[in-house]
Automatic annotation (TrEMBL):
This is Gnk2-homologous domain-containing protein. Signal peptide: none annotated. GO terms for cellular component: extracellular region. It comes from the Eukaryota. Its main location: secreted. It is found in: Secreted. The keyword Secreted applies. The keyword Oxidoreductase does not apply. InterPro entries: CRR_secretory_protein, GNK2, GNK2_sf. Keywords: Repeat, Secreted, Signal. It comes from Fraxinus pennsylvanica. Residues 42-144, 150-258 form the Gnk2-homologous domain. CDD domains: Gnk2-like.
Length: 283
């Protein structure tokens, strides 16, 4: 995986990756945490370039280049696609998906950007993934279709803690909201999407959205969301906002509107500058 920083091994074989002056923490589950600063930009929300999957023959390069247009076309038309290109050891599997609430125009623009950018950021890896706010794209020489993948994830969290309502009340309401939209996401016809809002106080509304990749079964979607929400106390505890980016699911909550459609009195708010991220990686 491509990172900037030092890597050390613990006695338990866990990789600790340190970036800049970011902090490092170790969980009881033996995963690695990397904390980095985050600012709003047009860059992707995250990327994964598997160092252990360096491309060893030109046929894989050609197959990736042939696969990407298929992913862009299918996603632009249907919002989601799984497909492959090539044969034998050089066959490449790909998945691309837009968030279920975005327009077809935004979806098409996002997935084209993703296809262009992933080859720049991961030029020599056969296992590559890229996240944008509105879409996700990945490819690999391993068939990953239908498999729950939480081996690599990114948690973005607001550095500010909630004060109104009090943290206990907020976390209770957050848990109830996540339960509701997770249940909605696995319902037939919802295509892995769940979203809702709840009034916390006269002046504060909590907005939440979850999205599973559409290749997952009902059980697989529920598993991915459960893992992500289960990590809230570690990464998002008492925070005003948080986003989770896994290869199989996406979660987000905020105290401002961010999903579509908007109510007449609402407008999309750009992510504040006071966000940090933690990368969770199980080597």
């Amino acid at each position: 995986m491509v990172f900037i920083g030092g890597i050390r091994e613990s006695a338990h074989g866990t990789a600790f990756i340190e970036i800049g002056d970011g902090g490092r923490r170790e969980s009881a589950h033996g995963t690695a945490f990397i904390e980095i600063g985050y600012g709003e930009s047009e860059d992707p929300s995250g990327q994964f370039c598997g160092d252990s999957t360096k491309i060893k023959n030109t046929e894989i390069y050609k197959n990736i280049d042939s696969l990407l247009p298929k992913l862009v076309l299918g996603t632009s038309q249907y919002g989601f696609i799984t497909t492959s290109y090539g044969k034998g050891e050089s066959q490449v599997y790909g998945l691309a998906q837009c968030r279920g609430d975005v327009s077809s125009e935004d979806c098409s623009t996002c997935i084209q950007d993703a296809a262009n950018e992933i080859r720049k950021r991961c030029p020599n890896q056969s296992d590559s993934r890229i996240w944008y706010e509105y879409c996700f794209l990945r490819y690999s020489i391993q068939n990953f279709f239908g498999q729950v993948d939480t081996g690599f994830g990114i948690y973005y969290y607001n550095v500010q803690n909630v004060t109104d309502p009090d943290p206990d009340t907020f976390n209770k309401e957050l848990g109830a909201l996540m339960d509701k939209i997770s249940s909605d996401a696995i319902m037939p016809g919802n295509k892995g999407l769940g979203k809702a809002k709840t009034k916390l106080t006269p002046f504060n509304t909590l907005y939440g959205l979850v999205q599973c990749t559409r290749d997952l079964s009902k059980q697989g979607c529920a598993e991915c969301l459960s893992i992500a929400i289960g990590n809230f106390p570690t990464f998002c505890n008492d925070k005003k906002g948080c986003r989770v980016l896994y290869s199989s699911c996406y979660l987000r909550y905020e105290l401002y509107p961010f999903y579509f459609p908007l109510d007449s009195q609402e407008s999309i708010v750009g992510a504040p500058m006071n966000y940090h991220s933690t990368i969770v990686y199980k080597p």
